[in-house]
C-alpha cells in the first residue's frame, strides 16, 4: 500500500504506544503503575456533566457553526481579556475538537512547504508531527540561545508554558525576549497555554498580552487539563482574524465543529464555580512534592516542576531515558516516557506523570527504588 509521504514521516505517538503496552500488561494480570498518563485522573466535575446532559435533553444535538457555539466563543474571549490580558473578541476565537486540533489547524494555516518552525527541546511530541504534516521543518532550539535557530526561512516559534514535559514556567524576561525576536524577524508565535491553571508558586503570563503581539500570536488553550475533560474534546484558539478565519475554513472541511453538547459543558466549565480547579491543583501540588522528595530519597535529583503534572528526570547516571524506561517496565511494571520522544537533546531524561493517586505514586517510587536505588 502506498501511503502519502506526509503521513509516512509521522510515527505513532510514544505516549499512546505506552498506553497500549500498559493495557496489554494489565490484561495479563500484572499490576501496572502508569506514570505515562497525560491526563488528570479526576472525573469531570458534576456541574459540567449536568450542563452537557441538559443540552442533550434540550435537543442541542445538531451541528454548530464551525467557529463554535457563539456564547462559548464570547465567554472564551471575555476570559482571555479578563484573565490573560489578551484583547480578543469572539471573532478571534475558534472552538476546536481539543487543543490538539487547534494546534494542528493553526500550523496548517501558517506553515508552507519548507518553512521553518522553532521548537524548544524538550517539547510536547505533537508539535513536531504537526509541523511535518504541514510540510514544514523543525529547528530545535535551546531557550538559552534562541537566535542561533533563526534563519530566513523561520516562520513560527512554538512555546508551551507551563511546559510539558519539563514542568517549567516561562517568566516575563524570557517571554519578552521571544516577543522582541518575533517582532524583529516578522515571525508568528504559537503559545500553548493548556496547563495555565496547573501552576505552583508562579504566575502565568500570556505572550499575546504584550504590546506588538496582538497580530502575531495564536494562543491555544482548552478544557482537558483544567477541568479534567480530556475525552470531551473541546479546545480553542485565539488568533488574529485572518488566522481564525483560515482555521474555521479548515474545520468546515474536516471536523465541521467540536461536539455540540460538549461545548455546552465547556461553557459551564468557564462560567461555573472554579473551586474544582483549586481542589485539583492542591492535590497535584501534594503529589508533586511526594514524587520529588521520593526521588531525592532514592538519590535521584530533579528540578522542582513549576507547573503541569510531570517531573522530567535526568537519568543519565543510569544509562539514559530509553534504557531506564525499559528496565522500569520490564522489572517493576512502571511505565514512564523516555525523554528522547521530546527532542534530540532530551534522551538522558524520563518523564514521570504524577496524574495518579498518592498510593500509586508511592508504589511506583518503590519500583524505581528497586531498579535504580
Ligand atoms: C502541551 C499540550 N498541549 C495540548 C494538549 C492537548 O490537549 P487537548 O486534550 O485539549 O487536545 C496536551 C495533551 O496532552 C498537551 O500536553
UniProtKB/TrEMBL annotation:
Cofactor: pyridoxal 5'-phosphate
Residues of the Aminotransferase class I/classII large domain: 30-365
E.C. numbers: 2.6.1.-
GO MF annotations in UniProt: pyridoxal phosphate binding; transaminase activity
Cited InterPro entries: Aminotransferase_I/II_large, AspAT/PAT-like, NHTrfase_class1_PyrdxlP-BS, PyrdxlP-dep_Trfase, PyrdxlP-dep_Trfase_major, PyrdxlP-dep_Trfase_small
Superkingdom field: Archaea
Pfam families xrefs: Aminotran_1_2
Record field: transmembrane: none
Organism this protein belongs to: Candidatus Syntropharchaeum butanivorans
Keywords: Aminotransferase, Pyridoxal phosphate, Transferase
Keyword hit for Transferase: yes
Name under which the protein is recorded: Aminotransferase
Family note: Belongs to the class-I pyridoxal-phosphate-dependent aminotransferase family.
GO biological process, alphabetically ordered: amino acid metabolic process
Organism phylogeny: Archaea, Methanobacteriati, Methanobacteriota, Stenosarchaea group, Methanomicrobia
PANTHER family xref list: ASPARTATE AMINOTRANSFERASE (PTHR46383)
Complex formation: Homodimer.
CDD domains named among the record's database cross-references: AAT_like
Amino acid at each position: 500500500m502506498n501511503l502519502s509521504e506526509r503521513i509516512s514521516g509521522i510515527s505513532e505517538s510514544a505516549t499512546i504506544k505506552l498506553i497500549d503496552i500498559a493495557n496489554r500488561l494489565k490484561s495479563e494480570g500484572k499490576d501496572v503503575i502508569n506514570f505515562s498518563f497525560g491526563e488528570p485522573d479526576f472525573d469531570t466535575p458534576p456541574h459540567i456533566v449536568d450542563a452537557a446532559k441538559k443540552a442533550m435533553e434540550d435537543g442541542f444535538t445538531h451541528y454548530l457553526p464551525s467557529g463554535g457555539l457563539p456564547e462559548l466563543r464570547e465567554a472564551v474571549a471575555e476570559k482571555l481579556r479578563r484573565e490573560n490580558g489578551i484583547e480578543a473578541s469572539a471573532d478571534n476565537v475558534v472552538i476546536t475538537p481539543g487543543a490538539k486540533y487547534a494546534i494542528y489547524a493553526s500550523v496548517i494555516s501558517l506553515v508552507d512547504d519548507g518553512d521553518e518552525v522553532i521548537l524548544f527541546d524538550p517539547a510536547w511530541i505533537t508539535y513536531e508531527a504537526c509541523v511535518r504534516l504541514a510540510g514544514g521543518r523543525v529547528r530545535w532550539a535551546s531557550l538559552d540561545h534562541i537566535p542561533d535557530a533563526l534563519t530566513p526561512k523561520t516562520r513560527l516559534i512554538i512555546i508551551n508554558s507551563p511546559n510539558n514535559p519539563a514542568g517549567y514556567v516561562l517568566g516575563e524576561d524570557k517571554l519578552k525576549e521571544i516577543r522582541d525576536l518575533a517582532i524583529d524577524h516578522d515571525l508568528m508565535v504559537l503559545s500553548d497555554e493548556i496547563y495555565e491553571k496547573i501552576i505552583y508558586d508562579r504566575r502565568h503570563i500570556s505572550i499575546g498580552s504584550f504590546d506588538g503581539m496582538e497580530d502575531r500570536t495564536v494562543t491555544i488553550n482548552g478544557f482537558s487539563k483544567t477541568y479534567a475533560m480530556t475525552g470531551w474534546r473541546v479546545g480553542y484558539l485565539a488568533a488574529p482574524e485572518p488566522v481564525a478565519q483560515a482555521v474555521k475554513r479548515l474545520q468546515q472541511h474536516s471536523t465541521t465543529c467540536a461536539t455540540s453538547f460538549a461545548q455546552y459543558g465547556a461553557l459551564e466549565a468557564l462560567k461555573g464555580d472554579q473551586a474544582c480547579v483549586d481542589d485539583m491543583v492542591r492535590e497535584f501540588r501534594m503529589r508533586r512534592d511526594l514524587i520529588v522528595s521520593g526521588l531525592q530519597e532514592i538519590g535521584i535529583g530533579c528540578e522542582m516542576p513549576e507547573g503541569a503534572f510531570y517531573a522530567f528526570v535526568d537519568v543519565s547516571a543510569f544509562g539514559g531515558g530509553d534504557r531506564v524506561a525499559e528496565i522500569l517496565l520490564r522489572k517493576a511494571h512502571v511505565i514512564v516516557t523516555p525523554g528522547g520522544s521530546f527532542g534530540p537533546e532530551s534522551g538522558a531524561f524520563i518523564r514521570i506523570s504524577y496524574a495518579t493517586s498518592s498510593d500509586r505514586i508511592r508504589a511506583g517510587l518503590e519500583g524505581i527504588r528497586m531498579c535504580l536505588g
